[in-house]
Write the structure tokens for this entry.
Amino acid sequence: MEWRQAVWREQLIYEYSSKGKTGILITDDLKEMDTDLPETVKRKSKLELPEVSEVEVARHYTRLSQMSYGVDLGPVPLGSCTMKYNPKINEDLASSERVTMLHPLQPMEDVQGILEIMYDLQQMLAYITGMDACSLSIPAGASGELAGALMIKKYHRETGGENRDEMIIPDSAHGTNPASARMAGFKVITIPSNNNGTVDLDALKSVVGDRTAGIMLTNPNTLGLFERDILEIANIIHSAGGKLYYDGANLNGILGIARPGDMGFDIVHINLHKTFSTPHGGGGPGGGAVCAKGEMTDYLPRPIVRKDEKGYYMDFTCSKCIGRLHSFYGNIPVDVKAYAYIKSLGGEGLRKVAITSTLNTNYFIKLIEKSGGYSIPYDPRAPRKHEVVISAEPLKEKYGITADDVAKYLLDNGFYAPTIYFPLIVKEALMIEFTESETLENIEEYARILEEIEEIAKENPSLIKESPRNTAVRRIKAAEANKPKNIIPTYRVLRRKKLGVKGYEKL
Amino acid sequence: MKAHPWMPNSSPETVKRMLEKLGIKDPLELFNDIPEQIILDEQAVYPLGKPLAEWEVKELVESKLHKNKIYPPNRIFRPPCPHITPALVRHIMGRSEFYTAYTPYQPEISQGLLQAFFEYQSMVADLFDMDVVNASHYDGATALAESILMSFRVKKKYRVIMDEYIDPSYRAVVETYLYGIGGKATYVRNLEEERLKEELENGDVAAVVVDNPTFTGRLRENLESLVDITHNHDALVVSLVDPLSLGIIKPPGEYGSDIAVGEGRSLGLGLNYGGYGLGIIAAKWDSKLVRQMPGRIIGLGEDLDGNPAYLMILQTREQHIRRERATSNITTNEALTTIGAAVFMALLGRNGFIELGESILKKTAYLRMLLSKLDSADVPGEGYYFGRTPVHFHKSYMTVEKELLEKGFLPGLDLSRYWADMKDKALFCVSEVHSKKSIEELVERLEEVA
Ligand SMILES: Cc1ncc(COP(=O)(O)O)c(C=O)c1O
């Protein structure tokens, strides 16, 4: 099958504009009222928005959608992103008017249904992670990380550990971990991975001390490897007075198999838009939960849904809590979708997710492990869980083909590329995660394309270097677009540059 | 359960084939590296229930959702106000080419997404009269919090001044973020100019937040003066605005704001029990500001053939490159809602924004006029109001509220929940979804009960 993306060469919506057109009819039943405003409050500058009809808006954005690629079009084996199928029933349920038209400040009696769903979701997520309580009042994973880091900070402040200002993070961690720790005011202490790609215990021991606030860990880590020494790591951190934070953006590899709570973690955040099947939306909205054990539950962000004899209610009371991270309660429709997902699969199905996604990863590894173009850094024989990171370094050394080139050639074959150049500890990294949603045939085809790249590279590497050809545009000159004189972040800046408006020559 | 429809390789036949290739007997062998004492057995997952068929899940979730009471939009007078949600917005957001996609890290195959984001940024820029807009933040409150952190980095100072009567949920979120980095907030009632100057004298203030309209709907008439005072003290102006007002109300760029933020929920997205939000962050064309902006920014460039092409630019600000030195930890944002907002802004266009703004302005004035005739309540404040008005009742607002709820209205927000000195004051909202008649009916009911 030859794959080709639509090429619409679609102009900007502004370029459809012509005077007097409108995309919406607004009626006026208050003609008698005037709309005069004084100069002090009134807009003076002309509003430079397009004037287009509804028909044109519909066509324009439908065409744009045809130049977008998601799970419903084909495989998206992006490591760390867990691009599984987004069940349609979940979309239907979350678009019920009894979700979309709910006002966030209705009396609790009016919203018992949604509160019950949120309460049950909190309970189920707590069970899945082995925690005691969860809060859904965060809008995405990184926000959950910030919540967790702030909880650790506040805990130490409350318990006489003001001087604990260091957060330990392995070098394989996702970039949000150090970024979140920093936003919570911590100094980031990076520790190297050992030859097996896991936490180096000696390195860990050498940095823990009375300034240790905690550690942020992902397990299985970003290489897809389970941290076998996790119980000892927990012991080292706890003995030093620190707390363990679990980056649970992706639980696919351990769902129903093992729980962070049993591993010794005190706080976990979860991405509903990964493990729990809610769509990524081209980058958001996501949804999340932050969960905690024991004394750490007091610090969870508010509100939390609770239940008493009168029914369900939002609890805003906060004595030790870190406060709020969203103006309301997070992305509610996402909660409904995640709830429906967990209910659909039940415990047995969730466990099957871990087993199937892990089986997919290791089956893929088997297909490529003998190839000369790619290597599997760190303990190649250890089973991977939800994902695997391979390296295109051999290809680069032999033929000058980089991870980026491999990615672009995959696009030409109708596969979304892997996550590339992450984690940072792998050179020419290709991070691949099929999830449980991918077919055997596609996994085999993907492996075949990787081999094909090596074959072509031997003969004619420029063929790979010139991809992609089948996408809406060819390779983009990113370095050019980022030069201060070329930065165009909005149509307005483009207009001003064209007109030669002073000050807009460069950023 | 043998095979599951969402897991193509879960049938016993396929599993067998895969295990053979792997040379193992049981997939659980792939978990042998997990310490035995923490491995769950099969029964451990039973409390999570049995798998349900699609119709069973539908029945289950709908039976719960059925317990939710919804009010018709024209009976909701409590902020955040409902607004029109054009069907096309929902339909475009429902295109699975968009919603099942990831962040466009591979731009060549994601031009549609990227162009839609670029158009969102562009239309917000025109609406706000600002130059650079990011590809979204979680909601208005987090957008404000991160803009304040941004101003701290630019100015290397760590205090912000806000109106004491700023939206209390925004205040709560900002304070959470400030706790992290050890920043401070000072509150000046109504941003009263003399008090503001006194606070600024200290020289340690990075930014002043100017909300317009204010939380209670008042349009400030001294915007330029607030900006001058702030700039004279080497601080930045962060404007917090209502995007729907900007067809007719002075946009942040016109009075010299350095950074502007807002909540985009009103751009066609609906209430959704408070989420999805859409955090808008905009900045003026100033390298010092833009390089400290949080979040993704989409730019226009070219491909190898010289065709226009969109891509993420200025990525060296972001966590995946800069890690602990990133301008923010934000990764997943509210991308799909920016597409919805782009559709909304395109539909409305130049004239629609003006007409919609005028409609809200007139309805606010009409509601205030009718309320001012009531014996049982006052309408505090002079000047111009947009979309909201405070109302001071002469009897217990708790009682009024209860009786209105019984009559099928969702009446104003009890302000004494947030400020002790606001006893029996409530904040009512009104928007284009309220017909003249529905406003009159609200006031009639208030007359009956108050
Ligand atoms: C391992 C890991 N941690 C954290 C995050 C951050 O989650 P979010 O994008 O929802 O903020 C991600 C994904 O982006 C991730 O893959």
